[in-house]
Amino acid sequence: MNEVIKTDICVIGAGSGGLSVAAGAVQMGAKVVLIEKGKMGGDCLNTGCVPSKALLAASHAASNARAASQFGVTTGPVSTNFAHAMDHVRSVIADIAPHDSVERFEKLGCTVIQAEARFTGPEEVIADGKRVQAKRFVIATGSHASVPPIDGIADVPFFTNETIFENRTCPDHLIIIGGGPIGLEMAQAHRELGAKVTVIEMFTILPKDDPDLVAVIRDELEAAGISLYEKVKTQRIETHNGQIRVMIERDGTEITIEGSHLLVATGRKPTVDNLGLDEAAVTYSPRGIEVDNRLRTSNRKIFAIGDVTGGLQFTHMAGYDAGIVIRNALFRLPAKIDHSAVPWVTYTSPELAQVGLSETSACEKFGDAIRVVTWTYAENDRARAEARTKGFIKVVTTPKGKILGAGIVGHQAGELIGLWSLAISKKMKIGAIAGMIAPYPTLGELSKRVAGAWYTPSLFNDRTRKIVRFLLKLG
């Protein structure tokens, strides 16, 4: 370990957040060392967002083909080829990979080391026999699949999100433990591609989302033939005649579910092991690395971003964190994180998207001093034209119209939520949305209509009618 590399910024982890920091810093004139022990692009590109959305695209195509007859289109029997769907997944990853590649970042000017990094002190890491000394470090090691301590799980084969996309054979019956976004997205994707699917959830599905929005997703999944077991406890798992048996308890009764394959989708854990954080004087726990509102760790020369901090586990959060770190580390600006307008999306069909406070959380914070307005997809002409009328938008405000949160369940909800994220981040009132001009016919009109509905009680009442009649008498 004789080679010493001195640099301005050392980034550990080449996932979304780490790559954003490295690319931004090096293009602004900083010397950057980027260290990654696994695949460039991290979880998002290789085992997370990209492959899951690519598989969903394939499965939704099959579902749309089956529903084509409602538009007068005859397709004949629809068949699916699971292996070809997985080929699509691999091709999408391959198309994006060059943007995250070693070659690209070396061309940008980064020194890339493909090895495990470990701190040897508060200002140095070792990787591939090299000692990297930096003015600032950024830990962006992400998270990994969390496997619960269920009796027998170590003795049966199972997938996580990190391995499910390597499978090229459609399961006869996929059992999924976990009813969060990953579990439900994979449930719908596999069902639409021909598998029988059962989802097991200890609480209710999508427990962090507005229950009114979730009800639409639940109905759609059950209508598609997906079996949902909510508020149950998984007791044990075993194999029997080549099949996987999952024993659950519901209301004191044991139920046995037998399937061909098992997916464990019970959340993720921050990747903090084997980093030498103690030697770096960085405070951490199994829940993640502790950071302040500037994303600094207990060692002020070391920042941590994204999943490894134990916060919101979204790729777009890692990218947001990267911008905060660049402002702090390069420009010495006291930039602070603000999570009041973080959107999140579950990419089932229909999609579910939220930002800000839900109705429940707003009630807990403000009591009865909130207002809630809704508008359905069935009242939107574009949704009618495309037979996408399932779902609605819900907006929560203060009595004076300040936007606190918004939730959308329906077609392209993830595309629509961005407007509400902007509105909340800029502390806008709902009148700004009501007054905008939305092109017709678009789903974007949903936002304008729900904002307009906020004014309905005050505009269309006896008092207003009296004022109008009085003014008309004046000539």
Automatic annotation (TrEMBL):
FAD binds at residues 53, 141-143, 307. It holds the Pfam family Pyr_redox_dim. NAD(+) binds at residues 178-185, 201, 267. It comes from the Bacteria. Keywords: Disulfide bond, FAD, Flavoprotein, NAD, NADP, Nucleotide-binding, Oxidoreductase, Redox-active center. The keyword Disulfide bond applies. GO terms for molecular function: flavin adenine dinucleotide binding; NAD(P)H dehydrogenase (quinone) activity; oxidoreductase activity, acting on a sulfur group of donors, NAD(P) as acceptor. Its cofactor is FAD. The keyword Flavoprotein applies. Residues 8-320 form the FAD/NAD(P)-binding domain. Binds 1 FAD per subunit. Residues 342-446 form the Pyridine nucleotide-disulphide oxidoreductase dimerisation domain. Disulfide bonds join 44-49. Belongs to the class-I pyridine nucleotide-disulfide oxidoreductase family. This is Dihydrolipoamide dehydrogenase. It comes from Thalassospira xianhensis MCCC 1A02616. The lineage of its organism: Bacteria, Pseudomonadati, Pseudomonadota, Alphaproteobacteria, Rhodospirillales.
